Structures are given as structure tokens and as C-alpha cells.
Amino acid sequence: MPLWAEAGWWGLLAGSALVVGAAVGWWVRVPAQVVAGVMAFGSGVLISAMAFELVDEAERFGGLTATAVGFLAGALCYVAANTLLARYGAQHRKRSGRQQPSEAQAQGSGIALAVGALLDGIPESVVLGLSLLGGDGIGFTVLAAVFVSNVPEGLSSATGMKQAGRSAGYVFGVWGGIAAVSGLAALVGNLALAEAPPAAVAAITAVAAGAILTMVADTMIPEAFARTHVLTGLVAAVGFLLAFTLERVGG
Q1: How far is the CA of 170 from the CAs of 67, 200, 238, 247, in angstroms?
Q2: Quick one: CA dihedral 239, 162, 21, 49, positive or negative?
Q3: What pLDDT is attached to residue 96?
Q4: Nearest to 41 by CA among 175, 231, 250
Q5: CA-to-CA distance for 170 and 236, rounded, in angstroms?
Q6: In Å, how far from its chain's centre is CA 42?
Q7: According to the 3-state scheme, what is the secondary structure of the chain?
Q8: Do 116 and 82 contact (CB within 8 A), yes or no?
Q9: Mean pLDDT by 10 residues, the chain (251 residues)
């Protein structure tokens, strides 16, 4: 299988976790505390993978200055896009309660929710595609982190969309479409940068890492804390430690 096709497959697999989570959220009544706990755990896993697999690798190949600039650029771009989407009702897209507005309450919020979910997923998918360029196969820790975090993300968001009056067609159309785009983003990232110098790949990785950390802080941790409160940090720390251990044992 060509490397770019393999990248697309792994991106699609990671993105499919959103559809799995959405299906559970739509048809199964999962206690909000359980959803929040998994969200906190996924946050810790993502932070660990971002720190030890993405930023560390970017610094080794691109240098500290380029990594820092790329990281901050990714964070700023995410904040700018997220701020714009929040004006149209997408600020609570990962919330499982009644925080998400209906189309009647905020016209255009349906599109904003879909674009916001896409914004959250693209950096993760690009990173998966880039992780294959080193020749050592898929970055297992990053793949596991994205998959684990996507399940509660899809579950929580789909539950909130259902309570806001969105149809099943809309919910599964959004998450199915984002899963497909996730695969495409991983494929394109791998194909476009296959011949790029290591410094360029490192810079793109740093940009994605900055966007991922900002996304976790802005959208995942608030949803987790709203339900688990004082346990949020502990559950996130367990996720962080597990991902770090897997990275060290696997390395």
C-alpha cells in the first residue's frame, strides 16, 4: 500500500471514532459523569502525545525557535477561528447538555457547529499523516490519543446536538463527513510533504501541536470539568501518564 494511502486509512480510522461516539450518544443514555471522565482522560492522553511525540520531535528536527514560532502560530490560528465560530453558536460544540443552540435560537449555528468540529479534527489528522514520513510506521501513541479523545468528543457533541433538536441525518452527516475529511487530511498532509525537508515537516507539526493543545484547553477540559469537577485533573493526569508510558515502552 502506498504511504499516502496508508496515511489516509489511519486518518479515517481515527476519525471513525467520532461516528462511534456519536452513535453511542444518540442511542445510549450514557451518564454525563462517564462522558466527562472519558473526556478528561482523552485530554491527558492528547497532551502527553502532543508534548512527547509532536513538540519534542519538531524541536529535534526544526530547532527551538522554529518550533516555538510554529506552536504559537497554531495556537493563534485556532483561537482566531474558534472566536469567529463562537459568534455563530459553535462555542459549546462539545457540550452534552442544553448549551448548544438550535437553529431557531441562532441561525447558522448548524453550519458553525460542523465547521467547528472540522476545525478540531484537521490538525490531529495532519499529524497522523506526517507521522508516517519518518519511515517507522504510524505513531501509535498519537493514533491512540486521537482515537481515545474522539470517542467522547463525538458522544458529547451528538448528545448536545440531539437535545438542541438536530436530526439524526444532520448529526451523522456531520460526523461521517468529518471522519472522511480526517482521512483526506492525513492523506494530503502525507502526500504534500513527502519530499519536504525535515525542518518544514517539523514546522507543520509544531503548528498542529499548538492548535491541538489550544483545542484541548478551550473545548475538552471545560466539558470535563463541568461534570467531574475536582477529579478532572486526576483523570487527565492518569491519561497523560498512560500515554507517556506507552510512548516510552514502545520507543
Answers
A1: 38, 38, 35, 37
A2: negative
A3: 56
A4: 231
A5: 31
A6: 10
A7: CCHHHHHHHHHHHHHHHHHHHHHHHHHCCCCHHHHHHHHHHHHHHHHHHHHHHHHHHHHHHHCHHHHHHHHHHHHHHHHHHHHHHHCCCCCCCCCCCCCCCCCCCCCCHHHHHHHHHHHHHHHHHHHHHHHHHHCCCCCHHHHHHHHHHHHHHHHHHHHHHHHCCCCHHHHHHHHHHHHHHHHHHHHHHHHHCCCCCHHHHHHHHHHHHHHHHHHHHHHHHHHHHHHHHHHHHHHHHHHHHHHHHHHHHHC
A8: yes
A9: 85 91 87 83 89 87 89 92 75 58 51 68 82 70 83 80 83 89 89 82 89 86 80 92 82 58
For residues 86 and 183, give the distance between their C-alpha atoms in angstroms, rounded to a whole number. 26
CB 247 within 8 A of CB 49: yes
Residue pLDDT, tens place only, 48-90: 988 888 898 889 888 888 899 999 999 999 888 888 877 776 6
The C-alpha cell at 114 is 460542523
Residue 125 and residue 112: Cα distance in Å, rounded? 20
